[in-house]
UniProtKB/TrEMBL annotation:
Signal peptide (residue range): none
Record keywords: Membrane, Transmembrane, Transmembrane helix
Organism listed in the record: Klenkia brasiliensis
Protein name: Transcriptional attenuator, LytR family
The Cell envelope-related transcriptional attenuator domain, residue ranges: 124-265
Region (Disordered) location: 1-34
Family assignment from sequence similarity: Belongs to the LytR/CpsA/Psr (LCP) family.
Protein's UniProt keywords contain RNA-binding: no
Superkingdom per UniProt: Bacteria
Coiled coil: none
Record field: compositional bias (Basic and acidic residues): 1-15
InterPro entries on file: LytR/CpsA/Psr_CW_biosynth (IPR050922), LytR_CpsA_psr (IPR004474)
TM regions (residue ranges): 42-65
């Protein structure tokens, strides 16, 4: 069946942030200003992961930590089973005066990351991203790895990369990503993107640019600027059929939404009340689980160190792809090992931002489909 004959991509039935899948006025009061600035800093610095910390920095850490800190779940022993002798070396800063870069493995799903006894028993990986905060704390790169990427999983042989998460949870996925990329993962975060996207309404909606007019479900997204509420955002990021690039265009839409959300968080006047900040924090802290090596103090220090990051300092990429094909009955994505080695090598030397032009085809365009 052709794409134009397919039913709409209902966000109730397709992963909101899934990668390719099988086919079947007045100046604000000083305290509020600090909270707003800290919130924006943390979200941009490490994506959704450190949003909670930003508010901890903002207006009395003791109060906010007590109110929200317990909402962020911790996943135990994520790195316990990894052999230090076989792991990649730590990334090197671009200059001797820089701090060490920090690399997160972000795993997104449409369901809340429910931690039971320190574990994620119902682990899903609808989206996989490597996020890097540069050593100078001025730049952030997000690299999406298609979840159908055909890779070698340690101890399991060849399979789709998301199978690593199903087989062995965060630890095996980290091993797989480190083996694939040669990049050492410092921290892990599991995020419910469906809950996160509900923050759209708390922000008063977000604006996204669309290259071509498309329709999905009850909504038409005309070419040009579109102002999306939460429900529209779910249909926008969930669309696959009717897009020339199919799943790959959907990944770009997901990245485009995140880019627009970051911009909204930086926009003047977005947070006009403490209650609005409180609502956003409740959503975000209920959407995230992180590895247990990330204490509140660690996150606060990281958020503060990245306070200079702006939306213009954030780059989105997709791991280089050769094409798609079939392995048995499974539709898979074949990664480009040569181009990928260059991309991951630049990331390891903290120089991907300076060499971004080399990956124009993998970068998020200004106006995606």
């Amino acid at each position: 069946m052709r794409d134009d004959q397919q039913p709409p991509d209902d966000p109730e039935h397709h992963p909101v942030f899934g990668a390719p899948e099988d086919e079947d006025g007045p100046a604000p009061a000083p305290g509020r200003s600090r909270r707003r600035r800290a919130l924006r800093t943390a979200l941009v610095s490490l994506g959704v992961l450190t949003l909670v910390l930003a508010l901890l920095v903002g207006g009395g850490a003791w109060f906010l930590a007590d109110r929200y800190g317990g909402n962020v779940a911790r996943v135990q022993d994520v790195f316990a089973g990894l052999d230090p002798a076989t792991r990649p070396a730590a990334a090197t800063p671009a200059t001797a005066t820089d701090a060490a870069p920090v690399t997160f493995l972000l795993v997104g799903s449409d369901t809340r990351a429910e931690v039971v006894d320190g574990q994620l028993p119902d682990a899903r990986s609808d989206a996989i991203m490597v996020a890097r905060l540069s050593g100078d704390r001025q730049h952030v790169q997000f690299i999406s790895i298609p979840r159908d990427s055909w890779v070698d999983i340690p101890g399991r042989g060849k399979n789709k990369i998301n199978a690593a998460y199903a087989y062995g949870g965060p630890s095996l996925l980290i091993q797989t990503v480190e083996q694939l990329t040669g990049v050492r993962i410092d921290h892990f975060a599991a995020i419910s993107f469906d809950e996160l996207i509900s923050m759209t309404d708390q922000l008063g909606g977000v604006d996204v640019e669309v290259a071509e007019t498309t329709t999905n479900g009850p909504y038409t997204f005309p070419a040009g600027k579109n102002h999306l509420d939460g429900d529209q955002a779910r249909w926008y990021v969930g669309q696959r059929h009717g897009l020339a690039g199919g799943d790959f265009d959907r990944v770009k839409r997901q990245q485009n939404y995140l880019r627009s959300m970051f911009g909204k968080l930086f926009a003047a006047g977005t947070f006009d009340s403490v209650g609005q900040v409180d609502s956003v924090l409740r959503i975000v802290t209920g959407s995230v689980a992180v590895d247990d090596s990330l204490g509140t103090t660690d996150l606060l220090e990281l958020a503060l160190s990245a306070r200079g990051v702006t939306p213009e300092d954030i780059d989105f990429f997709t791991a280089p792809v050769l094409g798609t094909g079939m392995e048995g009955a499974a539709s898979v994505v074949y990664l480009d090992a040569v181009a990928g080695a260059r991309m991951w090598g630049y990331l390891n030397s903290d120089s991907l931002g300076q060499n971004a032009a080399e990956f124009a085809d993998e970068a998020l365009p200004d106006v995606p489909r």
